[in-house]
Design brief:
Distance between the termini: 22 Å
Shape: globular
Radius of gyration: 21 Å
């Protein structure tokens, strides 16, 4: 039996590391002794929960249609259902335009990127600022606009952040160019200063930027269209993970730096559209969550020089239903995904949770689902997914970005015309 929601009213003043909720919260707990069973609201794939969500939201466009290529190894897909004992509440802390990137600043304010409108700050009372002065001009089109915003590991000391966006080459040349840039956030948080273009090119579609332990920048550059540049080509930066230094130079130990026919910024290849990227705090490894056209969305641990297969191998299909390369799912010399989803969830972002506020989730990976309309929680062991839980499905909205705040709470943006910034915090009895 699905556990009912309990509505709670919240009060209190904003403090430096907490948002004041705009609406009352709900909780998955109904009693002080929170112990959900296998069918509680939110568990991935339980028949009772699937029926309840369908009744609430209607049939999801990514509902299973019978296509299920077999995995290469056990546990590569459809992991056992997680039985979380972490009680939590959800607050709506702000109403925002459709967002892409999300970073929570050390003082608790949220920095968001708007595809069509640059960068904005959300303060602790839920007030959304005007676009930050000094935000770069963007080209607002199908594959253009403002994408990710990411904080330098030393942001608290240097105020440095990184931006990925697509704009016009110049005022007189409408050709699209993708750019990776650095800037400093002004002390009052209302402007970008010292904007520097680190790398640019017509073959860069910069979906995500993360900083590795060695301070290099890792950039997920998408390809999207099957008829476009091949993600297998070492001449194109599309469909790749790129690696550059903070000043835009190329690291001397990049895997293809000695190949005179390859673009030296390429770190890994064979991707379609990576929307999620994060560093595993336990190992320092880069993980990415990738969209494929129809099913076969992947979670991958990235190796230097690794080839992740698209479009040669895939567990998904083209949007129209045609097989990708005849349905081939494995080939020698190409990496297998650590995990994949069929039907699709359309990953929107990726985060590893390290906080203490929600101890039952510490060490877990969180992935937002766009068309899947969910927040996925993955329990992992030795680089493999061992359990999966789908959260927030009864909100019936696309989920875009997920980030951890300095308060240890989890923040999520929805991907709707009238989007929201959500906060997941511990359930208070």
């Amino acid at each position: 039996m699905a556990i009912a929601r309990k509505h709670l009213m919240t009060t209190g003043l904003a403090i430096s590391l907490a948002f004041t909720p705009l609406t009352s919260a709900w909780s998955q707990a109904t009693t002080p002794n929170y112990l959900p069973g296998p069918d509680y609201a939110g568990v991935a794939g339980s028949p009772a929960e699937n029926a309840r969500i369908t009744a609430l939201c209607g049939k999801n466009r990514n509902a299973a249609d019978g296509y299920a290529p077999p995995p290469t190894f056990a546990g590569q897909t459809r992991a056992p259902l997680a039985n979380s004992k972490q009680a939590f509440e959800v607050d709506v802390v702000a109403k925002v335009d459709r967002t892409w990137g999300l970073a929570v600043l050390p003082d608790g304010r949220a920095l968001i990127s708007i595809r069509a409108g640059g960068l904005r700050i959300i303060d602790q009372t839920g007030v959304v600022s005007q676009p930050l002065a000094g935000s770069p001009a963007i080209q607002n089109a199908r594959l253009s606009g403002m994408y990710d915003v990411s904080l330098d590991r030393d942001f608290a000391h240097n105020r440095t952040l990184y931006l990925g966006y697509v704009t016009r080459l110049s005022d007189t040349d409408p050709a699209a160019v993708g750019r990776i840039a650095s800037a400093k956030l002004s002390l009052d948080g209302m402007a970008l200063e010292d904007l520097k273009i680190l790398r640019e090119g017509p073959d860069i579609l910069p979906r995500r930027i993360v900083q590795a332990r060695d301070r290099t920048l890792l950039i997920a550059s998408a390809v999207i269209d099957s008829g476009g540049p091949n993600p297998q080509s070492l001449q194109s930066q599309l469909g790749k993970v790129l690696r550059i230094n903070r000043d835009g130079s190329i690291p001397k130990d990049n895997p293809f730096v000695k190949d005179t026919t390859a673009n030296p910024a390429i770190y890994a290849l064979g991707f379609r559209d990576v929307h999620g990227a994060a560093i595993d705090p336990r190992t320092g490894a880069l993980w990415v969550a990738e969209n494929t056209p129809r099913g076969g969305d992947e979670l991958n641990r990235i190796k230097a020089g690794g080839n992740y297969g698209f479009p040669v191998i895939s567990y998904g299909r083209e949007n129209g239903g045609a097989l990708i390369n005849g349905g081939k799912t494995a080939q020698e010399g190409m990496e297998q995904p650590a995990y994949y989803w069929n039907p699709s969830i359309a990953p929107g972002s990726l985060m590893f949770y390290t906080g203490r506020a929600l101890p039952g989730w510490r060490g877990n990976a969180f992935i937002t689902g766009l068309s899947g309309e969910q927040l996925v929680r993955l329990e992992m062991k030795a680089g493999r997914v061992v359990a999966e839980e789908k959260l927030l499905m009864d909100r019936c909205v696309r989920m875009k970005s997920v980030a951890q705040g300095p308060d240890g709470f989890i923040y999520v943006t929805t991907d709707e015309p009238k989007a929201e910034l959500l906060r997941l915090r511990p359930f208070k009895k």
